[in-house]
Amino acid sequence: MRWSETYIPTLREEPTEAEIISHKLLVRAGYIRKLAAGVYNYLPMMQRVLLKITRIVREEMDRAGAQEILMPVLHPAELWLATKRWEILGKELMKMKDRHLRDLVLGGTHEEVVTNLVRGELRSYRQLPLNLYQIQTKFRDEIRPRFGLMRSREFIMKDAYTFDADENGLKTSYQKMVDAYFRIFERCGLETKKVESDTGAMGGKAAHEFMVMVETDGGENVIFACDNCDYAANIEKAISIEPSEQESKEAEKPLQKVSTPNMKTVEEVTRFLNVPARKLVKTLLYKADGEVVAALIRGDRQINETKLKNSLEVIELEMADAVTVQRITEAQVGYAGPVGLKGVKLIGDKEVLNMTNFVTGANEDGFHLTDVNIDRDFKLDAVADIRSAAPGELCPKCEKGRLKTAQGIEVGNTFMLGTKYSEALNATFVDEHGQERFFIMGSYGVGITRTAQAAVEKFHDEAGIIWPVPIAPYLAEIVPVNIQDEKQREAALEIYHKMLDRNLEVLLDDRNERAGVKFNDADLIGIPLRITIGEKSLKEGKVEVKVRGSQATVSLRKDEVLEGFLKILSEIESTGKESTKT
Ligand SMILES: [Zn+2]
Q: What is the C-alpha to C-alpha distance for residues 187 and 411, in angstroms, rounded to an integer?
């Protein structure tokens, strides 16, 4: 392709709307343009990247025995009401009305539709397992779309759905998808980590996310990984073992009320009382499906709202507002405590169970209680793991290693759904004993547009993008230093046509621009190999080949450039991630 004939609107300036580097680079390098909040155009170069990722995904899904279909984007609301996800997903679900004022959904995932599709027609255990997938535009009404294609409202996804006769079948189907996912991302030039994740609104028994680990701010997911074994989980899911602290051995002291004027935060109170934060219990009030609950965790811990929500088995969870806190505790925010708190369910983090003689709010302005003890001073209605794991804690799997945090970008996910959707939509088959049974299902997603941006977040430098070879829009870019120089132009065209004859994807920068502009743009758009044709080397019958991301240039004879190019290409492909790592 000639630059003059395609559309690559590069920008000198950083786009103001972009916060993370990959988003900035995709806009600056002319790959994407925003149409509305969280809605993007994919320009010619981006479309080439997306088609390459799509092709890899398709090949690996087909190889795993999945069948490609295409389901509608527009769904009747009835299906979503039947599985209750109309309410569970709430405003995130893109809803609309047609001219007859019937409710419709713009699909963000297709569990309902695919279950409805097979219901009544996939009837025999002999037809199982079945894996159906599609590659399609999805919608999600993000409250705050940001980070370009990472948190957009419209995006491209591959989604697959498996139907099995029993749990063992699901395990086999699930493992096949996990294996396929590792191959997909590896073929895209991306190393991924598989981490345990919360099943969230998808429901089901187990779930995993595939993460591209990054060292930039673009990693929107915090994951915990063991430094000794393969345990890894995202922050919502990660659990840890806290070595018992012996505090339970302290003898119970008498409860006391102490004056803590204007001391409200954990830091203020513990400093004032001269106790460590671990001797205080925070009382956090939430509205869970409209009811007020109090969550108790140790002062130095972070509450994990996903875990809290799961343990309460509620759909909506939000911090109680100040008015509610004042009504319940009869005190200002900052003085809530479990002792004497009425009409509120008390849920304690399991760590709190081991604590004795701790500090809490007194439900009275300017006062706290010290030497509080569970059972003697108040009763817990429930105990659960409701805190986030912390770096340095013991791994729950090997019980030896320590947990370390890292930043990741989720590019794929897998869910063991079980019978959640088949039961809700009454989708059954007949087993070998003639019994009606619900399908055991799994669902599996790959974010196509997200994968593209994750690659940019992972592989770039100050000058621009450094595409992994397998998903680069072109393999090579030919840059004649001066297109008006006849010799340079002829040499450029000669190499260009030779490459086209060999079906090599090549971009020829035939613009009448200064060399500096063309070199800057070449670095910005990130094609793996640049072939520079300049006056000086051409006099010696040579051209220069440079690998994007490395400083080294190789001088090749013009008539040997094709062979030389292919050799370098296979070298950077085989060293893969190393050569493109920043
Ligand atoms: Zn471990």
A: 14
Q: Give 246: exposed, middle or buried? Use CB within 10 Å, 0-12, 13-18, 19+.
A: exposed
3-state secondary structure of 170: helix
> Which residues are near ligand 1, the ion (C-beta closer than 5 Å)?
226, 228-229, 231, 395, 397-398, 401
474 CB-near residues (< 8 Å, 6+ apart) = 1, 48, 505, 506, 507, 527
Q: What is the C-alpha to C-alpha distance for residues 12 and 464, in angstroms, rounded to an integer?
A: 12
Rounded CA separation 425/159 (Å): 19
Distance 221 CA to ligand 1 centre (A): 20
Q: How many residues does the chain have?
A: 582
b/e burial code for range 115-153 (CB count within 10 A of at least 16 → b): bbbbbeebeebeebbbbbbbbbebbbbeeebbbbbbbbb
Tens of pLDDT, residue by residue over 531-557, are 999 999 999 999 999 999 888 889 999
What structural domains does the chain harbor?
3-239+404-457 (3.30.930.10), 247-384 (3.90.960.10), 466-580 (3.40.50.800)
* 405 DSSP β-pair partners: 224
**Ligand 1 center to residue 49 CA distance, Å?**
37
pLDDT tens per residue across span 71-112: 999 999 999 999 999 999 999 999 999 999 999 999 999 999
* Distance from C-alpha of 421 to C-alpha of 440, rounded to nearest angstrom: 9
